[in-house]
């Protein structure tokens, strides 16, 4: 029996207030409006960004809210004007989008869509500013336009990447955020040459995805930098060949790396959000050709200082957003890399819990255990 055009009652994990455990309860999900798609979520995982906004530190709190933005699902119904996807299509909802019409979307160099780029403040849909979620007639806010901690969600059509239906959703869903961000920072932006050297600052999920990118590019030295030595053994699975803990040295980590590599690495990828790490990542690349790529998101009021001579000595500093991938155009091809076994994803998924135990995923992340916890919506 078709549910198109009808309100769907389903379970969702609602964040009612900052830092309090999510509450799994029945909500109503309205039908999709113009340029919107309603998706049945099969698997979702927890990213640190969800935790950051759940804690509501350093930004305007917006509650009640349904968090979640790393997921895989199947289109249930589509709204007016939607032609790119249809019911039954397998999709990845993505926290940023691609309208295909703005200057950024028309540029080969950019993936920062004017209409659909990440907006953490917006709690409703673009079409009318209203939410599609409610409980007892009261609205529940959206998150990043995705809100995947719900059995059904409504997403702008420019934020759903249609993928190969043969791809296992419980694996490729991690490509909708962290894995693509780190992997793309290396392969699309830093672009290490075969046999080159790469430094990765921060060995969480995004940093390990950056290391995986360096491995795929066949870098010969992949140096992992982290303050937590417990991460070093795990990082070997992602291609890291050497490790540096800044706390083990009485000199700046960029000096340590420069000495290790005879003048600096060919490229570095910073995945911590620490401005100190950003400076180190830039200053540890080799003069003449070194490229440093910033991935980590700093606090709102942060700034950093480095001497202009580093630029004059022909080092390059770049930033990237979502690994420079255009969500609709590029992510289906990254899924194909996984299907062809050119990219490994299984090792990123270290835990799995049923939807009713979603708060366990938060506990794992807050304790720094594992990389990604898969949340099974049908369990």
Automatic annotation (TrEMBL):
This enzyme's EC code(s): 1.1.1.1
Alcohol dehydrogenase-like N-terminal domain segment(s): 34-164
CC terms in the record's Gene Ontology section: cytosol
Enzyme class: oxidoreductase
GO biological process: formaldehyde catabolic process
Reactions catalysed: a secondary alcohol + NAD(+) = a ketone + NADH + H(+); a primary alcohol + NAD(+) = an aldehyde + NADH + H(+)
Keyword Magnesium attributed: no
Assigned keywords, A-Z: Metal-binding, NAD, Oxidoreductase, Zinc
Single GO term (MF): S-(hydroxymethyl)glutathione dehydrogenase [NAD(P)+] activity
Keyword Isomerase appears in the UniProt entry: no
Annotated signal peptide: none
Domain Alcohol dehydrogenase-like C-terminal: 205-334
Co-factor(s): Zn(2+)
Pfam family name, one: ADH_zinc_N
Gene3D superfamilies named among the record's database cross-references: Medium-chain alcohol dehydrogenases, catalytic domain, NAD(P)-binding Rossmann-like Domain
Family recorded in the similarity comment: Belongs to the zinc-containing alcohol dehydrogenase family. Class-III subfamily.
Subunit: Homodimer.
Protein name as annotated: alcohol dehydrogenase
Highest classification ranks of the organism: Eukaryota, Viridiplantae, Streptophyta, Embryophyta, Tracheophyta
